[in-house]
Design brief:
Blueprint (H helix, E strand, L loop, with lengths): L4 H36 L3 H20 L5 H19 L1
Length: 88
């Protein structure tokens, strides 16, 4: 346990942020799993809708520094490449 008041506050803040960040990351992974299922079932309309949701969620996470910029770019790039492949 921290001894100083400021260190205790920092610990509380870290706990809250960790929980919030984990929830955001879990939401992104959930959306990605749903997209993979839609792509396996050849549901292009549902996959396109999910891709928009993923892009929005990833961009917001990058903006809030929950994900790094390159990680967000990699997720979006791979997703769009897979969608393009599905469309052919």
């Amino acid at each position: 346990m921290p001894n100083k008041k400021a260190a205790m506050k920092a610990m509380r803040q870290t706990k809250k942020r960790t929980i919030r960040n984990a929830a955001v990351k879990e939401n992104i992974s959930y959306l990605r799993r749903m997209l993979r299922k839609a792509m396996d079932a050849k549901e292009t309309a549902k996959a396109a809708d999910l891709s928009k949701q993923i892009i929005r969620a990833v961009d917001k996470a990058v903006q809030k520094r929950i994900l790094k910029l390159n990680t967000g770019s990699r997720i979006k790039s791979r997703m769009l490449a897979a969608l393009k492949k599905l469309g052919k």
